[in-house]
Amino acid sequence: MGITSCMNFAVKSAFELGVLSSRLHVLWALNMGGSLEDRPRYNKSVCFETFPFPVIDEMKKTEIRDLAEKIDAHRKRQQAQHEKLTLTNTYNVLERLRQLDANPENTPVLTIKEKEVHQQGLVTILRELHDDLDRAVFHAYGWDDLAEVLVGRPGATTPLPDKSEAQAQAEEELLSRLVDLNAERAAEEAKGNIRWLRPEFQAPETVAAEEKSTLATKQTDTKAKTTEKAAIQGKLIWPKVLQDQIKVVREQLALAPLPAEAMKRQFKQNPKGVLDVLDALVALGMVIEENGEYRLG
After folding, report:
1. How far is it, in rounded angstroms, from Cα 50 to Cα 179?
2. Pair 268, 224 in one domain
3. Are residues 32 and 178 in the same domain?
4. pLDDT tens string 216-262
5. Which of 23, 106, 194, 233 is the most buried (most CB within 10 A)?
6. Is the domain of 138 the same as that of 176?
7. Is 184 helix (H, G, I), strand (E, B) or coil?
8. In percent, how much of the chain has pLDDT > 90?
9. Which residues in 245-286 belong to E strands, given as ranges?
């Protein structure tokens, strides 16, 4: 059985689908998510929102996207030809194939029903596509050393309690690297650097600001500085997203130290959340408070 879930993710391309379909994300989800009876349960908040996607160039993104599209097309094509073919049965057979290769002496051969699923789903082809996808995603993170141990092994789509020591160690190392990368991303976000998957949807204010900044750089230096100064002196809009709130507060303090009330007056409607952000930045050591006045640390 695979992970129990019913999730919809609105993403820009099949690149994200490819990363989410890789064994890297499955391992993360199996360890971060909860359970429903005896089945793993996918929790969006801890499985998806905390997962650190790789930051790569367009060539590598294209490779992952193309493989994800091939997997999606293959599954849809076979299910269209065989109306009783399910993804659950298909991936259970895929897992059995990997178990047969890893432990040919201890794993029972495919049953008559599994052989039918194998034939209808062309599961061997699906398995090869997933192995290629896993290699591409490992390479995107720069972790080819782990790909050599884990690609093609059982447990890529379902929990595997009985595994070799080498596989267990490699999976532990993979989780450790993902956790470290998650911590790096969290530190970046605290400084206002957010790696949005869909910035136009998740942070439209940020996209608008970036577009405005790009336009400004095309003008002369003097005009750009004048525009920036005028924007700062005017009343600002308090962002809805916490990361953007942190960013704009830090930008204001970069101009000059300010008391909390003076900081509030920089924004329309005098938002109450300014003080919470200032206190959080003080606790993180990014801002220093002295005699009621705040400045960058």
Report:
1. 9
2. yes
3. yes
4. 555 545 444 444 444 445 578 888 776 678 888 888 888 889 888 88
5. 23
6. yes
7. helix
8. 43
9. 258-259
